[in-house]
Design goal:
Blueprint: H1 3-10, E1 18-22, H2 30-41, H3 45-48, E2 50-59, E3 62-69, E4 75-81, H4 84-98, E5 129-131, E6 137-139, E7 164-175, E8 181-192, E9 196-211, E10 219-237, E11 240-258, E12 266-284, E13 287-298, E14 303-306, E15 310-314, E16 319-330
Parallel strand pairs: 1-2
Antiparallel strand pairs: 2-3, 3-4, 5-6, 7-8, 7-16, 8-9, 9-10, 10-11, 11-12, 12-13, 13-16, 14-15
Helix pairs in contact: 2-4
C-alpha cells in the first residue's frame, strides 16, 4: 500500500483518531480535505494528526473555521475565509505547521575540516582506511546529517469583511394611514454589516381618494411623502436573513378636496415611528430579495374638514404596510497587509 493511501486510512473519521471534517453543502468533502492536509503536512501527518475541523457559513462569502487539535498536539485555532476553498487551504496550512516533526537533536553534527598541518598530512579525514583482524582493508566515509527547515507553502489570508453598500427599492400597500388602501414606494441607500443593517431614503404613499361620510359627490385625495430612516439587527442562516426594522419618518401629508367647486390643497406635518420585520433570501452576495411588513404609528394625527361642517378624515392611530423589494449590495472587502497572514507555533 502506498504511503498516501495509508495516510488517507489513518486520517479517516473513525473513533477518536484522525481528522473529523464538518462542512456545509458545497464545500470540499472529507476525502478532499484529507488529501489537501496530507499534501501540505507530509506523511508525518498520518501518524501525528488528530483534529476536529468545523466550517460554518455566515454568509455568501463569509466562512468561520474552528480547528481543535488533540492528541500529541493540542490547541485551538479560529480562522475566517471568503470561500470553502480558502477555508480548506487555511486549515491545511495551520495543521501542517502544528504537526511538523521536530528537528532531530540526535543527528550527527557536521565534521569540521582538518587543518592543513604537518601532523595531519598523513591522515585522510574523509576516507580513512580501516584494517580488521583478518587483514582486509575497508574504506569508511563519514556521513553528516543537518536539519533542513521545511518551507510552508504560502496561502492567501482570509479577507476582513467591511460593511457593504446597499441600494434597495421596495413596493407595497399602505393600509390605515387614512381610510382606504394605497400603493407605496420606498427607495433607500444604506449599509449592511455582518449582523446589522441601516438605511436612509424616501417613502411615497401614492394619492388615494376618500369619500366624505353620507356623500357621493364630495371627498378628498391624500398622499404622503417623507424621509425614511431605518436600522436594526440582522440574523442570518446561510443565504436566508431575518432583519428587524426600527425607524422614523418625517415629511408631509398632502390633501385636496374632490367634488368641490373650489378645492383648496392643504399640507400637514407627517411624523411617525416604524417597527417591522422582513425575510430575505440572498442567492448571490450582491443581490437579496426581501419580503416584509411594517407597523406605522403616527406621532401626530391631523384632522381634515371639507368646508366648515363635513368631517372628512383623521389620520389613523396605526397603519400597516406590506412590501416586496430587491436590494443590491456592493462589498469592499479589506485584504490583509503583507506579512499578516496565518501563523502557527
Amino acid at each position: 500500500m502506498c504511503v498516501r493511501g495509508l495516510a488517507l486510512i489513518l486520517l479517516a473519521p473513525t473513533g477518536d483518531a484522525g481528522l473529523r471534517w464538518d462542512a456545509p453543502d458545497g464545500c470540499p468533502d472529507h476525502a478532499a480535505a484529507v488529501a489537501e492536509i496530507t499534501a501540505r503536512a507530509g506523511d508525518h501527518a498520518a501518524a501525528a494528526l488528530q483534529a476536529d475541523v468545523h466550517v460554518v457559513r455566515e454568509g455568501p462569502d463569509a466562512y468561520v473555521v474552528r480547528v481543535e487539535l488533540r492528541g500529541e498536539v493540542v490547541g485551538h485555532r479560529e480562522l475566517r475565509a471568503g470561500s470553502c476553498a480558502e477555508a480548506l487551504t487555511a486549515t491545511a496550512v495551520v495543521i501542517a505547521i502544528a504537526v511538523s516533526p521536530p528537528v532531530d537533536a540526535t543527528a550527527s553534527p557536521a565534521v569540521p575540516s582538518v587543518p592543513d598541518t604537518p601532523d595531519a598530512a598523513t591522515t585522510d579525514a574523509t576516507d580513512p582506511t580501516i584494517i580488521d583482524p583478518a587483514g582486509t582493508t575497508t574504506s569508511a566515509t563519514t556521513t553528516t546529517t543537518s536539519a533542513v527547515p521545511r518551507e510552508i507553502p504560502s496561502t492567501p489570508a482570509p479577507r476582513r469583511r467591511r460593511p457593504a453598500l446597499a441600494l434597495a427599492a421596495r413596493g407595497g400597500l399602505d393600509v390605515g394611514t387614512v381610510p382606504g388602501v394605497a400603493p407605496l414606494l420606498t427607495a433607500t441607500i444604506g449599509a449592511v454589516g455582518a449582523r446589522w443593517h441601516a438605511a436612509v431614503g424616501a417613502v411615497h404613499r401614492f394619492a388615494a381618494d376618500v369619500d366624505a361620510p353620507e356623500s357621493t359627490d364630495l371627498g378628498g385625495r391624500f398622499r404622503v411623502t417623507a424621509a425614511h430612516l431605518v436600522a436594526g439587527p440582522r440574523f442570518r442562516w446561510g443565504a436566508f436573513e431575518l432583519p428587524l426594522r426600527v425607524g422614523v419618518e418625517l415629511g408631509a401629508l398632502a390633501a385636496v378636496g374632490t367634488g368641490a367647486l373650489t378645492p383648496h390643497p392643504v399640507r400637514r406635518l407627517w411624523t411617525a415611528a416604524l417597527l417591522g420585520v422582513a425575510g430575505a433570501w440572498a442567492p448571490h452576495r450582491r443581490v437579496a430579495l426581501q419580503l416584509g411588513v411594517d407597523a406605522i404609528v403616527p406621532l401626530w394625527r391631523p384632522r381634515f374638514v371639507l368646508g366648515d361642517t363635513i368631517d372628512l378624515a383623521t389620520v389613523g392611530r396605526a397603519a400597516v404596510r406590506a412590501w416586496l423589494g430587491v436590494e443590491l449590495r456592493f462589498s469592499f472587502d479589506e485584504r490583509p497587509a503583507p506579512g499578516k497572514g496565518i501563523r502557527g507555533r
